[in-house]
Amino acid sequence: MQIVKSRIVMQIKKSGWLSLAALLTGCSLPPAIPVIGAYYPDWFFCMIAGVILTLITRRVMLHKYNVLSFAGIIYTTLFALYSMLFWLVFF
User: Fold this and answer.
1) How far apart are CA 52 and CA 58, in angstroms?
2) Quick one: which of 3, 39, 78, 91 is 20 to 30 A from 33 by CA?
3) pLDDT tens per residue, range 18-71
4) Residue 84 and residue 68: Cα distance in Å, rounded?
5) Can you list the pairs that 88-91 forms with residues at least 24 positions away whose Cβ atoms lie under 8 Å?
6) Domain-by-domain residue ranges, the chain?
7) CB neighbours of residue 20 within 10 Å
8) How far is Cα 68 from Cα 76, in angstroms, rounded to an integer?
9) pLDDT for the residue numbered 18
10) How far is CA 5 from CA 10, 16, 17, 61, 81, in A?
């Protein structure tokens, strides 16, 4: 009797994963933006915005504070933060 129950449970689990995968697949449009006839992915624009905002923040921080410790970590973190926020807000 235990073998029958475990087979039924396994089939339910498999069908649950398949139905979840079916619900999560498919988009109405690809995540791309047409620019002068070429399609560029959305993340590309988010990275560009992240770099620009990080450079602006760098200029403001260097103007306010002359010395900035752990600059590599700070700028990398700001880049990731700005890129992800840009993605959340606009896409």
Assistant:
1) 10
2) 78
3) 666 666 666 566 677 788 888 888 889 999 999 999 999 999 988 888 877 888
4) 24
5) 90/46, 91/31, 91/42, 91/46
6) 2-90
7) 10
8) 14
9) 64
10) 9, 16, 18, 64, 48
